[in-house]
Amino acid sequence: MDAVNRAVVEARDEADALRLWLRLFATANRVEGELSRRLRSEFSMTLPRFDLMAQLAKAPEPIALGELSRRLMVTNGNVTGLVDRLVDDGLVERRVAKEDRRSAVVSLTSAGRALFDTMAKAHRGWVEGLFAGLDDASRAALSTLLKEARTSVEEAT
Amino acid sequence: MDAVNRAVVEARDEADALRLWLRLFATANRVEGELSRRLRSEFSMTLPRFDLMAQLAKAPEPIALGELSRRLMVTNGNVTGLVDRLVDDGLVERRVAKEDRRSAVVSLTSAGRALFDTMAKAHRGWVEGLFAGLDDASRAALSTLLKEARTSVEEAT
DNA sequence: GGAAGTTACTTCAAGCCTAAAATAATGGCG
DNA sequence: CGCCATTATTTTAGGCTTGAAGTAACTTCC
Question: Which residues form the HTH marR-type domain (chains A, B) (predicted)?
Fold first, then answer.
């Protein structure tokens, strides 16, 4: 096979959706695993609980469980369990909404807020470190392409 | 803020590692969830089991559990359970390696091979469909950048 | 006001996943 | 040969996740 044909084959290869998906999955998985391990070993914290706390931290007021489940893109039952464990740990407070007694709203306790601030700082540093091998141009390009990909997926479902 | 400064801020924003990671995670999660749901509803199959079968399908001969766990990037104990369930379903065969009695090697049964071929065809189509909104150039660029990202992560760990 | 439908959350069963401890077989090495 | 370290797998405890079924509170509409 000559150089031109090799290039053609490689180009087709790089554009192959299945290969793209495998690469996307592998990369995301690798990062997630690493962050998960570090959260566990440094703070005895899990990534799902950290993510939940992050939602509470950036919200100006308590959030209902349903809203939380939408923002985290997980099922309602899942959120129920995560909040249960965070409440057990004294990091989150659950209260019945006064205007709708079906609804439970949650917020960080002061201990939760303090721990989150510490963890968030470390977490940001870890993510920076993991992507340190990419320059700003690559990061920006990757970010843009991922947004396009996300849009493509949304439209296809 | 003038236009130049807005552009500067936006560029910094797009290059922010944390934002990049959140986007990567969200995209991968969305695709994974969709493929998972379709495998379940169309074939009563889970994504992890499908992935395991894919490894067996492309291997020329039976694979040891340890090798499988490396290729799938999951722990040994995880593979043990997945194989157990696939054996229960008659899709995979587990045998003690003749040259090393500690080692168990697995391969697809003929039923497993047949089911996998059917599923793989559908799966490929689904992935193509999900990424149909990206043209070849975008796909190739995304793939290349993901490879860079993966390398960056590997180097940072 | 009350039946019927909807909405918010919880519970349940099943499966995935990890880290760590336990088993079992191998491979040196004295 | 027999002890010891290593290697391959399994087991266990704990946590995450989903989809489906269940409970309770709210809303609509007559």
Answer: 14-151
Each residue's pLDDT tens digit, B5-58: 655 555 556 779 999 999 999 999 999 999 999 999 999 999 999 999 999 999
The CATH number of the structural domain formed by A45-155 is: 1.10.10.10
Tokens of A51: 């993510």
Q: Tokens in use for B30?
A: 């969305």
What would you measure as the largest C-alpha separation in chain A, in angstroms? 73
Q: Could you say which residues from 13 to 52 on chain B have a Cβ atom under 8 Å away from some Cβ of chain A?
A: 14-21, 23-32, 34
**Distance (Å, rounded) from C-alpha B72 to C-alpha B50?**
11
Tokens (6 digits) for B14? 């797009």
How far is it, in rounded angstroms, from Cα B104 to Cα B97? 5
Domain boundaries, chain A: 45-155
Give residues 62-121 of chain A lying near strand D (Cβ < 7 A).
73-78, 81-82, 85, 100-102
- A111 to chain B, closest Cα gap in Å: 24
- In this complex, the answer to whether residue B77 has its CB under 7 A from any atom of chain D, a nucleic strand, is yes
> If you count DSSP H runs as helices and E runs as strands, how many of each does chain A have, helices first?
7, 3
Contact (CB, 8 A) for B23 and A150: yes
Does the pTM exceed 0.85? yes
